Amino acid sequence: MSVLSIQDIMQDMARQVDKAGITPVAPSPTDEREALIGLDPLLASMDKQFQDARAHYHEIVKAFGMDDPMSIVARDMMDSTESALETRLIELRHDKAMQEAVEQALRVTDAEAERYETSILKRRELNDFYAKTSKRDAARRAEKEANEGFLMVVLLLMTLYRTIANTRRKLELASIFLGASQHDRTMKAA
User: DSSP of 62-119, one letter per residue?
Assistant: First the structure.
């Protein structure tokens, strides 16, 4: 079983967040029109009708061509919904309470954008820190393993040297004993 460091656990968690695709939500609205659509349900409904009419018009033109009577009717419907949408926008722009609400929404949006950018920067800094820490830890582990390997080689060489020295002494003693034994036989024979 391997022992995990805190950095390893934190990196695993960061990778899981990246794999899951969890990202901060992008800020909205980005302009006055989007803010008004978000604040006024009638304008939001009119915008949806305009988007649908425009999509329907493009489908009709694609299917039948620009000069087909169906295309002309679809264009008139699109123009009509766009006029109604623009009229409502003008009405809302003259409403002081609505303008204050729009300004507040855009201020909040600016603050959200700053927080979003800050969170992205912090996340990048954190990922950079984890990467540097991981590299440093890997280098330390590699150095430690290299040192341990070197010590093992030195230990094995010392053991081999002692074994050779002991074997040499035993062979010398055996040679002396054999020489003495042969000397005794020659003395007895003489």
Answer: HHH-TTSHHHHHHHHHHHHHHHHHHHHHHHHHT-HHHHHHHHHHHHHHHHHHHHHHHH
3-state DSSP assignment of residue 26:
coil
Give helix 96-189 / helix 69-93 axis angle, nearest 10°.
100
DSSP 126-156: HHHHHHHHHHHHHHHHHHHHHHHHHHHHHHH
C-alpha distance from residue 140 to each of 126, 132, 176 (Å): 21, 12, 54
pLDDT in tens, 49-100: 999 999 999 999 999 999 999 999 999 999 999 999 999 989 988 989 888 8
Work out whether the CA dihedral 100, 101, 104, 110 comes out positive or negative. Answer: negative
Torsion of CA 177, 179, 185, 186, to 10 degrees: -160
DSSP 40: -
pTM above 0.90, yes or no: no
What residue type is assigned to position 119 of the chain?
S
Share of the chain above pLDDT 70, in %: 85
Residues 178, 180, 181, 182: is their CA dihedral positive or negative?
positive
Q: Is 137 exposed, middle or buried (0-12, 13-18, 19+ CB in 10 A)?
A: middle
